[in-house]
Amino acid sequence: MTESFRIKDFMNPKPVTVLPNTSIAEVVKLTLKHKVSGVIVVDKSNNLLGMISELDCLREMSGSIYHEGRNASSLSAQDIMTKDVMTVSPDGQLFDVMTSMLNQRQRRRPVVDNGKVIGQVTCRQLLKIIASYS
């Protein structure tokens, strides 16, 4: 039955995205406002550039508090984003993506079609799906 579960049917079609020049302070505000554990960094054409997790933000902000001379407020998304991001196709199999996310210890994965971000799948979404079939 799970063979017919495609990512496009379960993804969040409106993930939180930011432009590369977005300040870290603004990234933090967005993660808190939207109650997400990270954001996707895109260019003006919605091409995937990278991702930033709340842990990335915490690392930079706490570092600026404890290390003199470091100033997180001068950093932008492009300065701390992870550039090598695993993605998934909208036609990807839900079970395969779930297994891969578990193996890679990832909480979220952008859904990309022809280089453009069209959605995101998260652990929370996957848990909801599993819970609904339990």
Q: What is the beta-strand fraction?
A: 15-25%
The CATH homologous superfamily corresponds to CBS-domain
CATH architecture heading: Roll
| CATH topology descriptor | CBS-domain
Major sheet size, sense and barrel closure: 3 strands, mixed
In DSSP terms, counting alpha (H) and pi (I) runs of 4 or more, how many helices?
Answer: 5
Please tell me the overall pLDDT.
88
Report helical residue fraction: 25-40%
Q: Which value, in Å, is the CA radius of gyration?
A: 16 Å
State the CATH class.
Alpha Beta
Tell me the strand order in the biggest sheet.
1-2-3
Global outline = globular
Give the topology.
Layout: E1 17-18, H1 24-34, E2 38-42, E3 48-53, H2 54-66, H3 77-80, H4 94-104, E4 108-113, E5 116-122, H5 123-132
Task: Provide a descriptive summary of the structure in words.
The protein has one domain (2-132): CBS-domain (Roll). The protein is 37% helix and 19% strand. The chain contains 5 helices and 5 strands, in the order βαββαααββα. It has helices at 24-34, 54-66, 77-80, 94-104, 123-132; strands at 17-18, 38-42, 48-53, 108-113, 116-122. β2 and β3 form a beta hairpin. The radius of gyration is 16 Å and the shape is globular. The mean pLDDT is 88.
